[in-house]
Write a structure and sequence with these properties.
Elements: E1 2-5, H1 8-20, E2 27-31, H2 38-47, E3 62-69, E4 74-82, H3 96-101, E5 107-111, E6 125-132, E7 138-144
Parallel strand pairs: 2-5, 2-6, 4-5
Antiparallel strand pairs: 1-7, 3-4, 6-7
Helix pairs in contact: 1-2
This protein binds adenosine-5'-triphosphate (ATP) and magnesium ion.
Length: 150
């Protein structure tokens, strides 16, 4: 699926739509350059689970949120992983992050997912690519592995 967003709110809305289709164990992999809107997207996604994200220092790699899945009327844990500070493209090959990325009892959202090596990508993943068109416009491409929508 492809979208063009021309406001922060619209990016959050697109993320919110995706959130409605997520279930425990899903992993959302975010790709896009600095300022392309990855954190904005995470914010919109988290809001669907009644989580209000607050700004935190960029050296924090893992944040754990406790939310609520309204459609399933159940609790929901979200891991927000931001790999910006870690190594280079495709370098992360295991370690502590794996415990979280492969957790089937949480929803995982990864910023700078291109830092992960191939074997660190869970099979059931949804890739979201954000591209800067200009100061207000973002091209958002969502590829859902489970639907073979490539
Ligand atoms: N349509 C849009 N969608 C999202 N953000 C937008 C849009 N138009 C402008 N922006 C601006 O782009 C920036 C996006 O910041 P955000 O922190 O979400 O990006 P990021 O990809 O997480 O960056 P980083 O790589 O530093 O983590 C914000 O300053 C926001 O105001
Ligand atoms: Mg960010």
């Amino acid at each position: 699926m492809k979208f063009v967003s021309n406001t922060v709110e619209q990016t959050e809305q697109i993320a919110g739509k995706l959130a409605e289709n997520l279930s425990l164990g899903d992993t959302v992999l975010l790709y896009g350059s600095l300022g392309s809107g990855k954190t904005t997207f995470v914010k919109g996604l988290c809001r669907k689970f009644l989580i209000e994200m607050v700004k935190s220092p960029s050296y924090v790699i893992l944040k754990i949120y406790h939310g609520k899945n309204l459609t399933k009327n159940d609790k929901c844990v979200i891991y927000h992983i931001d790999l910006y500070r870690l190594e280079q493209m495709g370098q992360i090959n295991g370690g502590e992050i794996a415990e979280y990325i492969f957790d089937e009892n949480a929803i995982k959202i990864v910023e700078w997912a291109d830092r992960l090596s191939e074997k660190m990508l869970p099979e059931k993943n949804i890739k979201v690519k954000l591209e800067i068109i200009d100061d207000k416009n973002r091209k958002i491409t969502i590829i859902n592995q489970t639907e073979e929508d490539i």
